[in-house]
Design goal:
Largest sheet: 7 strands, parallel
Protein name: Electron transfer flavoprotein alpha-subunit
Shape: elongated
Family: Belongs to the ETF alpha-subunit/FixB family.
Domain Electron transfer flavoprotein alpha/beta-subunit N-terminal: 61-216
Organism: Paraburkholderia xenovorans (strain LB400)
Low-confidence stretches: 1-7, 23-38, 374-379, 381-388
CATH architecture of the largest domain: 3-Layer(aba) Sandwich
Order of helices and strands: EEHEHEEHEHEEEEEEEHEHEHEHEHH
Mean pLDDT: 84
CATH superfamily of the largest domain: HUPs
Domain Electron transfer flavoprotein alpha subunit C-terminal: 250-326
Number of domains: 2
Number of helices: 10
Radius of gyration: 23 Å
Oligomer: single chain
Helix content: 25-40%
CATH topology of the largest domain: Rossmann fold
Strand content: 15-25%
CATH class of the largest domain: Alpha Beta
């Protein structure tokens, strides 16, 4: 079964800074390549962007989303960009973040930022989140509320709020402008259009998050005192059940270490994965050589993954493999060839022998365990990756 993700070719358009644009597969990659060739890649520096508006606000659009480790994911950024792109000069875009947020709200298009650090995406508190959203709506009286239509909390929150407030709502929105929204219905055989409702749940990839402007980015101190109510409520959080990363499906893994042709000592690689608490992936070459089973293969002919951290040891980065990791948040490549294709995709490239790097990391982990006198895994995946990328 082909599980390769791609943009729905029937999607009518995406809204961008230049207006409505028909989606054509491959355009983004070609444009990026031309920009790299023209401006020399990293040497190119973006010019400062103007403020979207400096007019006195007459109305508000509210965007709500959960943060993950201090940042908004692509879907949330697209939703915020959608609100900013259709806002007129007298409309203020307010971003409500559930969880800690350390990003640049202005660069994402927000005029005001309200951060609720008491909410953690890993904690299930639907009643408290609904109360917080309702309180924010009461305070700012937005004409429209935008949320990403995802399965990680935002889509559920948007539906709960629309039901509680008896508000008009549109879900799985794939087309949006200042006057209307549209979505597929009847198993994608029909297209439904309606005027912009009070609550908009936006589908992924309906909006280009790249903006030609910035917002005011004002951080607002806003107090919410309802976070203790769930203890007496009908919903009880049973917590998250931790499982061995090796038993996790690659499509669900948040941290993956992947081996290519440059990895010769598979047991040492597997020890490192266990130390880091990471799931194991592999390139097609490594699988074809019999080093790993077929279910570990990542790429166009294998698994498409969306890990927050993806470390590739000894993988050159054929186009099929890059297709499989296109949705990963941070990619770290360990390769002797600085001009390997994966180096252009990676956020950080370590020019070194993959096998020697694995051995050095295993030795460092063993030394750290000895120094601390514990056999527990000492390397936290998020700290390792984000510290390296800082």
């Amino acid at each position: 079964m082909n599980t390769l993700k791609r943009i729905d070719p029937r999607r009518p358009f995406t809204i961008t800074a230049e207006g409505l644009r028909r989606i054509t597969l491959g355009v983004t990659g070609v444009a990026a390549a031309l920009e790299f060739a023209t401006h020399g890649g990293a040497s190119h520096r973006e010019q400062p962007k103007p403020r979207r508006t400096t007019a006195t606000p007459q109305r508000v659009m509210l965007v709500a989303a959960h943060a993950d480790r201090g940042a908004l994911d692509d879907h949330a950024r697209q939703t915020l960009a959608g609100a900013a792109l259709i806002a007129d000069a007298t409309t203020e875009v307010v971003l409500l973040v559930f969880g800690e947020f350390s990003g640049d709200a202005a660069a994402l298009g927000a005029d005001k930022l309200i951060e609720l650090p008491m909410f953690d995406r890993r904690t299930f508190a639907p009643t408290d989140e609904l109360n917080a959203l309702a309180a924010c709506v009461a305070a700012y009286a937005p004409v429209h509320v935008f949320l990403p239509d995802n399965a990680t909390g935002d889509g559920d929150l948007g539906r709960r709020y629309a039901a509680a407030a008896n508000a008009s709502v549109a879900t799985h929105v794939v087309e949006i402008d200042a006057a209307h929204v549209a979505a597929y219905v009847h198993a994608n055989t029909a297209f439904a259009v309606r005027e912009l409702p009070e609550v908009v749940l936006l589908a992924a990839n309906a909006v280009d998050p790249k903006l030609p402007f910035v917002g005011a980015g004002e951080r607002v101190m806003w107090r919410f005192d309802g976070a203790a109510a769930s203890a007496q409520g009908a919903v009880r959080d049973l917590g998250i059940e931790e499982i061995d990363a090796a038993q996790l499906a690659l499509e669900e893994a948040d941290f993956i270490v992947s081996a290519g042709n440059g990895v010769s000592d598979v047991p040492a690689f597997e020890r490192l994965a266990a130390t880091l608490g990471a799931a194991i992936g592999a390139s097609r070459v490594a699988v074809d050589d019999g080093k790993f089973t077929r279910d570990k293969q990542i790429g166009a002919t294998g698994k498409t993954v969306e890990a927050s951290v993806y470390i590739a040891f000894g993988i050159s980065g054929a186009v099929q493999h890059l297709q499989g990791i296109k949705d990963c948040r941070h990619v770290i490549a360990v390769n002797l060839d600085a001009s390997a294709p994966i180096a252009r995709r990676a956020n950080l490239t370590v020019i070194a022998d993959a096998q020697e790097t694995i051995a050095a990391l295993n030795e460092a982990a063993a030394a750290a365990r000895t120094a601390r006198g514990t056999g527990a895994a000492l390397l936290n995946s998020t700290a390792v990756a984000e510290g390296a990328l800082a």
